[in-house]
Amino acid sequence: xxxxxxxxxxxxxxxxxxxxxxxxxxxxxxxxxxxxxxxxxxxxxxxxxxxxxxxxxxxxxxxxxxxxxxxxxxxxxxxxxxxxxxxxxxxxxxxxxxxxxxxxxxxxxxxxxxxxxxxxxxxxxxxxxxxxxxxxxxxxxxxxxxxxxxxxxxxxxxxxxxxxxxxxxxxxxxxxxxxxxxxxxxxxxxxxxxxxxxxxxxxxxxxxxxxxxxxxxxxxxxxxxxxxxxxxxxxxxxxxxxxxxxxxxxxxxxxxxxxxxxxxxxxxxxxxxxxxxxxxxxxxxxxxxxxxxxxxxxxxxxxxxxxxxxxxxxxxxxxxxxxxxxxxxxxxxxxxxxxxxxxxxxxxxxxxxxxxxxxxxxxxxxxxxxxxxxxxxxxxxxxxxxxxxxxxxxxx
Length: 396
What we know:
Blueprint: H1 26-38, H2 58-69, H3 76-87, H4 91-96, H5 103-109, E1 119-123, E2 126-128, E3 148-152, H6 158-170, H7 175-180, H8 190-193, H9 198-205, H10 215-227, E4 232-235, H11 242-250, E5 253-256, H12 261-274, H13 278-302, E6 320-323, E7 330-333, E8 338-340, E9 345-352, E10 357-364, H14 368-374, E11 379-380, E12 383-388, E13 391-395
Parallel strand pairs: 4-5
Antiparallel strand pairs: 1-2, 1-3, 6-7, 8-9, 9-10, 11-12, 12-13
């Protein structure tokens, strides 16, 4: 095995076991992947559309690629520690992921001999001098000092602030609780998020000649050690493009294909639109705005989606109709007839005896009692329920 200070030599890790074969924080990766899934429109690739439901979470792709490239050493605990730093799973990484913890909560959780080195205080919106707070210590219980509020000092050193955040996060018993307070790694600037980790990463992997200052540099060097060149990632059924996208973002050469043309379009968009350089993204955005304006002018000129008074449709609502076997009437099916809670807008069924069906009347600004009644639609507990001539009909 190479020693400390070794130069980068191709194929040194050609047959070496990968880190993922020995240690892998599956529970943490699973939690982060689930958070990404639940982020909805906040996910990086959903800007292209949510058509592809089977899109792999980017954090999962990143974990597998790094775990497959990193070598297993004789210190598995340090291997795992370095891997978690590369994923921003460690306490320091979580602190840089902008956790939502109030200063009061931090002071309540920590024991600090000199809290006013980091915090400032005000009493009923009036600043309080630090010397007047000398008797106060952390842990700080807000209920013991009614009217007193604390905040970060303006001159606090960023390193001290991150250290206190990390200490506060460490008081939560589970990773899920700690990470649940933080932003997801993909929401942050990677240069800032991962800046402090590289000395530790390089020190641990220096025996292989690793000297990286970013994920792409690390991945390229690991590729040379394993394969003699930058890693190549192929995805023959690329779907929504998350695997080639994240692999490319990590610094791999990627090759992707799919039989479905929509999958190819989404993958191309992930790499060439979302993954474009900032100046190219700005140019794409300008072009999109210009196209949207031209389409809008054409729609307005033709009168599409406009009524005779010039009102423009914002959304269209629809429901299915079914024929009731008991009465022969066509009945609109909906679980609720509330259209807007904020503006008290509802739909009301109006019988049309001549055609044995219902018209739908839209009412705005109705009283609370009508809003409450409209919450009951014609579909209730798997049954069709409606009123006609004072009688309620209920059919499976």
